[in-house]
Design a protein that fits this description.
single chain; mainly alpha; Serine Threonine Protein Phosphatase 5, Tetratricopeptide repeat; disordered N terminus
Length: 339
């Protein structure tokens, strides 16, 4: 199994439909700029209600009254980072750390900032500092594990995520990501157990259901795999990988029509992914729908011209269509790509 997906700890989401009641409460809290706790609460409410710029403004006002308040500076840095204001976020997080150098939470926010902007070594150092200062900082352990895994340090990543599960046995992200890493090591039973724990804690995690389904598919447990993948698709109907996985499952059991429908949905969501077009060609070829197979495979070849398997199957389809010159060229291309 090699396609489980990491489950990041999400940033605070921006609300889709602001609540007038919550916004009024946030404005009331923000009016007390002399009270840092009120300002922090107001900022969080503004973010929750989709008003990130208003949250930033409230924090700026609060910081004018309390220029060395680490928590307000840290929250402002986090919002600036998420807004793409890289240089100002850099300066603000440094001010926050100077104001409260012993804060594990500020080190964690520093790590998030660096990770967002592709600075993996600095993110790792910040997360390591966060958990050094607070061994129970679960989010710090989870993100340290993710950063180590992205850098190919699998054993260290596993240890970090295991520490996260010890610090908080009810952290679904810790269990889900630990399952991903166990799967990468080939520890399938351990991976399945972690995915199930993640789902038990957070039943609405589409990623956990997807990972469980993918792992079960790898074990050829088709019925349970399909149930998990369908639940993932229900929870997140915008994930093309889930429909791709369902297509592979349906192709495996000979349900080619369902595989075609799954792949069309995946392509609708991510039209430039050659894998989806290739497997659509496979499904059509299994149905002897040669014209449709050729169209799908030609699209796959255009998107990924250096993949031998695409040209090989395209040669088969051309042969079925009695197009010998095209078939020979496709086979020649496949052979050349194979070396």
């Amino acid at each position: 199994m090699n396609r489980a997906v990491p489950i990041p700890l999400a940033d605070a989401a921006l609300g889709a439909a602001p609540s007038e009641e919550n916004l009024a409460l946030a404005e009331d809290l923000a009016s007390g700029a002399s009270d840092p706790d009120r300002t922090l609460q107001a900022s969080k409410l503004f973010v929750q209600e989709g008003k990130r710029e208003r949250a930033i403004e409230a924090l700026r006002q609060g910081i004018l009254a309390h220029p060395r308040h680490g928590a307000m500076l840290g929250q402002l840095a986090d919002l600036l980072s998420r807004s793409g204001s890289l240089e100002e976020a850099d300066l603000t997080i440094q001010k926050a750390l100077e104001s409260d150098p012993d804060s594990a939470e500020l080190r964690y926010l520093e790590g998030l900032h660096h990770a967002r902007h592709g600075r993996a070594p600095r993110a790792r150092a910040a997360y390591e500092e966060a958990v050094r200062r607070d061994a129970g900082h679960v989010k710090g352990w989870v993100n340290l594990g993710l950063t180590l895994a992205e850098g190919g340090q699998l054993e260290e990543a596993i240890r970090a995520l295991e520490r996260a599960t010890v610090a908080d046995p009810d952290c679904a992200e810790a269990h889900g990501n630990l399952g991903v890493l166990y799967a990468e090591k080939g520890l399938t039973e351990e991976a399945l157990e972690e995915f199930r724990r993640a789902i038990a804690i957070h039943p609405d995690s589409a990623s956990a259901h997807f990972n469980l389904g993918w792992a079960l598919l790898g074990e050829d447990d088709r019925e349970r795999a399909e149930a998990a993948l369908l639940e993932s698709a229900r929870l997140d109907p915008e994930n093309p990988e889930c429909f791709h996985a369902l297509a592979l499952l349906h192709q495996r059991i000979g349900s080619y029509g369902r595989a075609v429908a799954d792949l069309k949905r995946a392509i609708e969501l991510k039209p430039e992914d050659a894998r989806f077009h290739y497997h659509l060609g496979v499904a059509y070829n299994s149905q002897d729908a040669v014209d449709q197979a050729i169209l799908a495979l030609e699209t796959a070849a255009r998107l990924s011209p250096n993949e031998a398997r695409i040209h090989r199957l395209l040669g088969v389809a051309y042969d079925k269509k009695e197009l010998p010159a095209r078939a020979r060229e496709a086979y020649r291309r496949a052979a050349a790509l194979n070396g």
